[in-house]
Write a structure and sequence with these properties.
Length: 119
Amino acid sequence: MSIARVNFHTLIQDSQEYGSDDEFMVSRVFFTLEIDGKKFENLSADLKQTVGSDFETGSIEVSPPRGYEGHFNHAAFSEGARKYFRSLVGSKGTGIMIEGSRNIRMQNNIFNKEMAIEF
């Protein structure tokens, strides 16, 4: 089985351009994927979360990577994408720290922070 390395580098949080509306917040992560000795750059995936849900425990749906068609452990990637998002937005977020409030909504925030995962 191949080992994949994902290098997350940018998050655009809650963007109407990517599909956010009154019901769902859609954020997009940008990353590079290295798998089977090949490097795939300029990839992205959408993270969809219900408006008003808890940033720490609320469900976040992660789309398949845009720009990559090969085999892939989507469950492991999704876990890493959620971890990347929550490292930037939430009670432990280094970009926007939100604690104990569900009615805060800030849109189109751009974060440039590196984080790598392997699976």
